[in-house]
Specification:
Blueprint: H1 2-12, H2 19-36, H3 38-50, H4 56-103, H5 108-113, H6 116-158, H7 160-167, H8 170-207, H9 209-214, H10 218-270, H11 276-317, E1 338-349, E2 352-364, E3 369-373, H12 380-386, E4 395-400, E5 403-404, H13 410-415, E6 417-420, H14 431-435, H15 444-453, H16 457-462, H17 480-494, E7 498-502, H18 510-524, E8 528-532, E9 544-549, E10 552-557, H19 559-565, H20 568-577
Parallel strand pairs: 3-8, 3-9, 6-7, 7-8
Antiparallel strand pairs: 1-2, 1-4, 4-5, 9-10
Helix pairs in contact: 2-4, 2-6, 3-4, 3-11, 4-6, 6-7, 6-8, 6-11, 8-10, 8-11, 10-11, 15-17, 19-20
């Protein structure tokens, strides 16, 4: 119960910026409820007074009054439908902005363990349901309760005992709904999970469409999607089964309420306890009473959908963001003196931690170019990820210019690091926008200069739209080498004191690689450069080459020194060039 109240309080705070519109919405709902209570009263007066006593003027006045109320009701319904939905949409936008901002601060481990499609489902489907609840929930519940209370008061004026008999059935309807509430919540939660999974499958299949077609794996993808689709159908079937049981029970209760009114009201009329007009008004008021009860029953599904979505929203919002030390140091410019001291790290998942590096220690002097080589699985890329604090170490310390990186402001640290990764990611936008990620304040001249250094400028000039050419989703309109060079241009533009090249030339052909090596070497002058490479020809001129295996550091030295050692490095080097 405490947890439920906590969610309600959290949900209510999103109305605060829009309280004026919300109050207007609730006021309109109140007036509509009051108008709904007028019709049975006027009907009673027409049957009991105006018609029997031939009061034509009063009849016309009553009819005119009703018409005026209905015109007012139409205007108020417009306000409810338009501005009420605007409140919901604005709350949805606020929550989406808050969620997006929070996602930007979450640790990388969260994205390692959660599918993109599932996250997208929470950003779209869940928040839409929350938006609908934000509008219809308070409005419909408020309108229903006002109508129910108003109907009770009006019915009591007609006959208190008959009113008490009828309202004795209302608690029964409520009690019938309680046992099904938990089941409804569970199936809606399961449905959300399945919906997220199928969204993830679609996102993966569409993103990998070229790979699946290249391998003739369309049938495999279709089979995989089919399984997810079947799970969706099963979950939806369970959901509708519980909903069917709930709604059938609720509608029976309401029909029985109407039956009880007709029977008890008929008996009261038969024994002369009420007259014809009162009996007619009573039946009409019961119709007015049943309408909000039916609304509450119908909105129950929406409440469950919205409540489930909001809980899933809170689940993400409650995940702690990346740790930031209070009063963290924020140096404007670092020199790049990097030290790893007894660093231990393992990727964490539901099954525990997968150890990658253990008691790892190296010193990278400022301004030096250090290359990391060795077989896959040794932790070379992981070392690169630890420097900008994409992940937190399990033990040991990493310092930059004497600062423990945990004492540094993350943004300040990362501003001093440029990264070109093996798996290049380009945003859906223009070439100019993607290069400008290195420095959003850069001029066109700066961008072109960076592109020239990355050996991509001449190619961009051949495009019909030049730097305004759209690269497509994830840079799909560019070749692998072109994407790599755009990414390198981005690093040139950033001009950081620390440069991380994680297989930065892996997608380049030999001719292009030769052209860009001089540029990379020029870029490395005066800054700390960490190079991860499998193509050993790219790191021959490094100040130091460190050979890393799953056992840790096996060898270190210059290219010439390592060749002279006749060890692992020489074996790797000779293997790569034996057919050259």
């Amino acid at each position: 119960m405490k947890e439920k109240k906590g969610y309600i309080r959290r949900f209510a705070k999103y109305y605060k910026p829009h309280k004026k519109l919300f109050i207007i919405d609730m006021f309109c709902a109140f007036i509509i409820s009051a108008v709904n209570l007028v019709y049975p009263f006027v009907t009673k007066e027409i049957i009991n007074n105006y018609v029997p006593n031939a009061l034509l003027n009063m009849l016309l006045v009553g009819a005119g009054l009703l018409l005026g109320f209905y015109v007012l009701k139409a205007a108020l319904n417009f306000v409810l439908q338009y501005w009420g939905h605007i409140v919901g949409v604005r709350i949805q936008a606020d929550m989406r902005a808050e969620l997006f901002d929070h996602l930007q601060k979450l640790p990388f481990s969260y994205f390692d363990n959660n599918k993109t499609g599932v996250i997208m489902s929470r950003m779209t489907n869940d928040l839409f349901e929350i938006s609908e609840l934000a509008h219809h929930g308070p409005e419909d519940v408020f309108l229903s309760f006002v109508t129910i209370i108003g109907a009770f008061i009006m019915l009591a004026f007609i006959n208190v005992w008959l009113t008490l008999i009828v309202f004795a059935f209302v608690p029964v309807i409520v009690l019938c709904s309680i046992p099904m509430r938990k089941r409804m919540m569970n199936v809606f939660k399961d449905m959300r999970v399945v919906q997220g999974e199928i969204n993830a499958d679609i996102e993966s299949a569409v993103s990998g469409i070229r790979v699946s077609r290249a391998y003739g794996a369309q049938s495999h993808e279709a089979e995989k999607f089919g399984k997810g689709n079947k799970n969706f159908v099963k979950a939806k079937s369970r959901q509708y089964k519980v909903m069917g049981q709930f709604f059938s029970a609720m509608y029976f209760c309401m029909d029985f309420l109407y039956f009880a009114v007709l029977l008890s009201g008929g008996l009261f009329f038969y024994y002369g306890l009420i007259n014809a007009g009162e009996f007619s008004a009573f039946v009409l008021y019961i119709t007015v009473l049943i309408t909000p009860i039916r609304t509450l029953v119908n909105i129950f599904e929406q409440i469950q959908e919205g409540a489930t979505g909001f809980k899933r929203f809170c689940d993400i919002m409650d995940i702690p963001p990346e740790e930031q030390k209070e009063n963290a140091a924020a140096p404007e410019k670092l020199k790049g003196d990097i030290v790893f001291e007894n660093v231990t790290f393992g990727y964490k998942n539901d099954e525990g931690a997968q150890k990658v590096i253990s008691d790892f220690s190296i010193k990278i002097p400022a301004g030096k170019t250090i290359a990391l080589v060795g077989p896959s699985g040794g932790g070379k890329t992981t070392i690169c990820h630890l420097i900008p604090r994409f992940y937190e170490t399990d033990g040991g310390t990493i310092t930059v210019d004497g600062y423990n990186i945990k004492d540094l402001d993350r943004q300040s640290l990362r501003k001093n690091i440029g990264i070109v990764q093996q798996d290049v990611f380009l945003f859906n936008g223009t070439i100019r926008e993607n290069i400008a990620y290195g420095n959003f304040a850069a001029t066109q001249k700066d961008i072109e200069e960076a592109a020239k250094k990355a050996n991509i400028h001449e190619y961009i000039k051949t495009l019909p739209e030049g730097y305004d050419t759209n690269v497509g989703e994830r840079g799909v309109k560019l070749s692998g080498g072109q994407k790599q060079r755009v990414s390198i241009a981005r690093a040139f533009l950033k001009n950081p004191p620390i440069l991380i090249l994680d297989e930065a030339t892996s997608a380049l052909d030999n001719a292009t690689e030769m052209l860009i090596q001089d540029a990379l070497q020029s870029l490395s002058v005066g800054r700390t450069t960490l190079v991860v490479a499998h193509r050993l020809s790219t790191i021959k001129n490094a100040d130091e080459i460190i050979v890393i295996t799953q056992n840790g550091i096996e060898e270190r030295g210059t290219h010439a020194e390592l060749i002279a050692k006749n060890g692992i490095y020489k074996e790797l080097y000779e293997y790569q060039f034996k057919n050259a």
